[in-house]
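so im writing up the methods section and need the ROK family protein record in one place, dumping it here so i stop losing it
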Amino acid sequence: MADVAGTESTPVAAAIGLDVGGGAVKAGTVVLTAGGTLTGTAVTGTTLPGGAGPAMEAAETRIEHQVESDGNALSALCAAIARDQYSGLRSRWPGLPVVWGVSAAAWIDPHSGRSVFSPHLGGWRNRALPQDLSRALADLTGLPLAPGGSREHASGTAPVPSVINDADAAAWAEARLASTAAGPDRMVLVAIGTGIGGALVRDGAVDIGEHGMAGEFGHMTMDPSGPLCPCGNTGCWELLVSADALAARAGRTSARATIDDALDGDRACRDAVACTGRWLGRGLATLAAVLDPVRFVIGGGVAAAGELLLGPAREELARHLPGGRRRPMPSVSVATLGNQSGWVGAAGVALERAGWPVRALSTGSGPHWRGSPPPGTRPAP
Ligand SMILES: [Zn+2]
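--- predicted struct ---
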């Protein structure tokens, strides 16, 4: 447990967050103050959507397909990213305890952190990820493993990361830290990227299910005669709503290109986004029937389409919501933390698991550091 003596703005710990999805790893660092406020550390002038900030900007590293299917290579890549983030934190915040957290597009055993299965990260199926990752960091740095599987970075050792599901991390961040965090309510997060990640939040806590596998909404069957999914079923929801599905509908090379062109007014791309939105809404109606949430929060890269996606989704949700006119409609909005919520959540959960409560995300300037180097010093590249 951390010593939280000192003023509210005194830094007490730092965390590295890595968000490992199909196609890319996003990584960033945060510093936690004694008052429980998280703030970003890479001062770039970029603020999060919704006005939260400052500078919660993650570096993004593309993952080659052969690395996704090679677990050792994927762990080594993550270790290399973590090492770079560590050296940046070390030079700017010498002596501050550091933990690291990894969120992964995989079904994670809540007790051990082992990945049970992953449709998109073939190399990370059935692996003891916390041990894999700390060993990869030890191999890379020549440091010994942290004694007793310690999560905290004791000087001169390779600590064990906290590992959680990526959608659970994003939901934790949206429920606890986003500007729209609504206190105790019932929220469903749907994150649309390579696949669909999902999570249910009740009273501020992510409900991960009995085996850590709740919220795999992307693999609800929407069309039993549809195409084969990497999960082993056919016609899963994510095959109709994912980034690839959107790009294929528009005949573009990527979802990002499709969304950019749709926002610029391209008719075919707008139609593809609207069609994807209708499939999204159809699935939300099923989720509402089962879970009865107050609100849906839509995250992931595809959410960048904003109202072009959400408008058709709401219409379809209203059309198919069982008992539609006689019950309250759940709201549907875009995730406030956008694409950053996965790594921010991984870092925040890692801090909490190591005994540092996280209460809020800074909306002002960063924490004031009383030692050397002076405030404003940029982290080492
Ligand atoms: Zn599936």
